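Listing S7. Sequence submitted for prediction.
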Amino acid sequence: MPKRTDIHKIMLIGSGPIVIGQACEFDYSGTQACKALKEEGYEIVLVNSNPATIMTDPEMADRTYIEPITAQVCEQIIACERPQALLPTLGGQTALNTAVELAESGVLERYGVELIGAKLEAIKKGEDRELFKQTMDEAGLEMPRGEFVHSLEEGLRLQTELGFPTILRPSFTMGGSGGGVAYNIEEFEQKLIHGLDLSPTDEVLIEESALGWKEFELEVMRDHNDNVVIICSIENFDPMGVHTGDSITVAPAQTLTDKEYQRMRDAAIDVIRAIGVDTGGSNIQFALHPDDGRMVVIEMNPRVSRSSALASKATGFPIAKIAAKLAVGYTLDEIPNDITRETPASFEPTIDYVVTKIPRFTFEKFQNTPDLLDTQMRSVGETMAIGRTFKESLQKGLRSLEVGRGGWGADGKDLDLEKLADKELREHLIAPNSQRLFYLKAAIQKGYTHDQIYQLTGIDPWFLDNLYQIWELEQRLAVEDVFADPALLRQAKEYGFSDQQLASLSKISEPEVRKRRLALGIEPVYKTVDTCAAEFEAHTPYHYSAYERENEASRSERKKIMVLGGGPNRIGQGIEFDYCCVHACFALKEDGFETIMVNSNPETVSTDYDTADKLYFEPLTVEDVLHIAKREKPDGVIVQFGGQTPLNLALELEKEGVPIIGTSPSSIDLAEDRELFGNLIRELGIKQPDNGMARSLEEAKKVAESIGYPVLVRPSYVLGGRAMMIVYDAASLETYMREAIDVSPERPILVDRYLEGAQEFDVDAVADGQDVVIGGIMQHIEHAGVHSGDSACSLPPYEISSEHLQQLREHTRDMARALKVIGLMNVQYAIHQGAVYVLEVNPRASRTVPFVSKAIGRPLAKIAARVMAGKSLKEQNFTEEVVPRHISVKEAVLPFIKFPGADSLLGPEMKSTGEVMGVGMEFGTAFLKAQMGAGSMLPAEGQIFISVNDRDKEAVLPLARRLQKAGFALMATQGTRDFLQRHGIETEMVRKVHEGRPHVEDAIRSRMVKLIINSPLDENSQYDDFVVRRAAIMNNIPYTTTLAGARAATAGIEALQGGNIGVRALQDYHSEM
């Protein structure tokens, strides 16, 4: 059946900010859907609050609403735009939940909007665990025994029948939020109360444990003619008990017998039919008992999911694009496969290689949170590697992770076996954790038998066999001269051993390994991902390396630019850098260059098969990039857009003759070198906070004493404020140096005077060697001391003198010229006691580029990419700063709810996973929308709790008056209450936690408090402050730990009380500039 002609305008709901459990895979799927539907001639209306996405670029949809994703806001957009259809299956859990609310509240019926992609009944059957279980029972498909409960009493009654361990799964949450495993009654009560609280339907599934069973996923698509295809099978390396997003996963499934696979395939088809998904894709999860083969259905997502992105990149099959076309009436056999151009989408993909996905964790960012994995997802990103065998793809994946490892050990960084006690080793094998793979290696080295490891971990013997084989070859490589035996060297490379590992084992340098290996003629060839195991010709060059004989990558004679991506997402280096890489590909393609993308992140738009002319799915290491550069001979390589990852390779690539374009690596190095940069800005007459460098504790103490405490300390050459801290005395400095000095061993520790209470600003600019144009000036809402990635910010600034504004512009231009910047540059400033100080200069893309681009209506990354390729700013007609009339506010989204024990107090180390944007004509409206987008609902009425330190008491007075005038009742701890009362502000007193009950935590947990203003107090109150902040997070109550944040929240509340906040398309804002 051809596409539907009765609909003309389709509304898509995005997934909002990047959070743990819902990341940039939905930008990839949403972008693909927008392109597919526009290609078919439909008008697209998009709502998404995330400015760092490609899908919110104004060219992607006809009408782009960067607005909070709530049912109320979506209703306003529907009323304005009058779409005939709503497609919610490409925006993750957020979009599905919003669509269900719109349908059930009658909004869709009232405006005549049809749900496409999945009918309401199918969404509810797939998402409502009770309906899903009922449907599976009716279809004769087995699930783990269990029932749904809606109260603690019901749960306790059921638990006695099921026994321990017990699995808890709240309904309608994402990333396993609120779920977990309970091993005793205390854990069970705690997890059940939390799960009921998080579930929007107050419903938790309690079921028998399938811990230790093998876990599988099938990616399935179905059309309205009941054609069903299995796109990909995925097997979890870890047994049941670890969220699939936190497990290493392998495609295709490796350990199923043909009979087991056929049973699972049949069951998946039965599931998708029973649920009723008939115009799109679904991800279906199964558990298989390792002893008796009993198979149970765990869950299904009636939408494009995280695993869909992985399956798409693993097979080359564009799941989101096909899902979008099915939603508008096509059938699978009517849609051509873009890669082969001969087969239809009903032709199931076949792959003749192995794909391994490895999650990326950042537990080091969240002190007091144990490094333990369970059914609640905690990884912040992932990397994917393709190899001819599991061994090769595993080792490639590990060196792609950006954790400094060359592969599965053998890189000089293995665990110290002499210091590793047997008790510690066993604990790390039994309890899944982010380092378990390396503890597995230690167990093999210590002589644990195959069966012992299997009994402790439950990891399938097939995977353990492969690990033993890697280790056995490593033993040979450590004692034999690998360069005297080309066959052994080739075998090492076939097993995925990197030059870094071979250098460590051979005790020579990595460049020397490369030189000797190339002299023996051992280098990789490139194979093609083609969906059909080479049965048909592939028309989209999507490659991976292998140490085989036949090369499938061909080189053209066109002018080429290679873009190096950012690798896996992590806190400090997220989707914003991928956005810049994608824009570089788009711009340079438009200008006639052949673009080549190198990246290892399966979630992103940069690794979509049609973003660049060629895609190399490879680790971002000197070894891997040099091989690609040697084969492709690019005319230029861009390293400044992918964050710290490609920058760390820049100097060595340049030394090897790779033509890096844009700002030179030496200029980037100069900006990072404290002494050289200090000399440069002194010559320019620009102020910098007093600072110094230290390579030892004694040096650090001397520098700190000469500057004066408090000081800001951090390692050099890190992103995201890694291990950055404000230190108030010598004892704290000693603790810091002892714990953090090894974060960047070859680099010194940087020590800066901390400008307490300073206002911070970010400036983005583009330079072409002649001209420097300011992209945007942002004012941080939080004062100095909070990492710029975690602070909300406003563009244009809302509180700065014209004299200071002019100074920021002049300093930025002077530094861009002095550093010979060609491309993007970001500068962070502080204004303290009337003086402007430069805090940091980054002559590269920054995480603010997408936000600024959306705010001003100019694509800065595209402009910068063209500059790097030789087109001046004048030629591009970008010669003046654009200052919009509207206000844009960026707000950070923080993951504390996923990390029990972590303190939510913001500081100089970045902790946010994503961001949202609010746009309005006044600051209050823009800030309110940003808070709504981040899921922090400011109250319009109720009681506000205030507890501030003595420094902040005077400044809190006007805010307390404004809030009282707005109709709020105030509650405060004694010191703050007495101060407010003395100034005529009626305030109720509440006890601190250590003063007896009922106390402030009770008030928060009872939902008596609607907003918390809590600036950190003295040391005696630190525990109280922590408990208050933690209770706010667990009960989803908005809170702020700074007065600057409280002022912004007050402006937002006043805007909320003012009435309709309105919605407006980005295209309308841009047309007025």
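Caption to Listing S7: primary sequence and predicted structure tokens for the chain studied. The mean pLDDT is 91. The longest strand covers residues 822-832.
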